[in-house]
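Appendix B. Chain record.
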Amino acid sequence: MIDKSKFKTLGGETDEMWSSKDRPLQVGAQIEGVYAERIENTGKKKNSTIHIIEVGADKKRVGVWGGVVLDRRLKEVPFGSNIALEYKGKANTKDGNQYNDYWVGVGAEADVQLEEEPEEA
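Structure tokens predicted for this chain:
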């Protein structure tokens, strides 16, 4: 029997998803852990991203569906960095479109250049 605790899982395997159609995110929902992996070109249309965060002492792999805002904010974060996410709810662009907004924090150990973001599309 393989002792999986001795290895890092590769290939997008998750223990659970942070949200789903049956369990949508509520404003204020939070998750904190180690940014483990990014799976791109996934989902029905192959145009989505799943960010995998290892949470807790048991390093449960939790998948977080990306989107314009989250993908942009996590793009430069190195794997292995401590991160925290908080769902802030729906927000509107200047032209009236809605998007999911998040507060994203990264541990002080991560070498990340933070830039001003253009308004979300």
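Further analysis of this model is presented in Appendix C.
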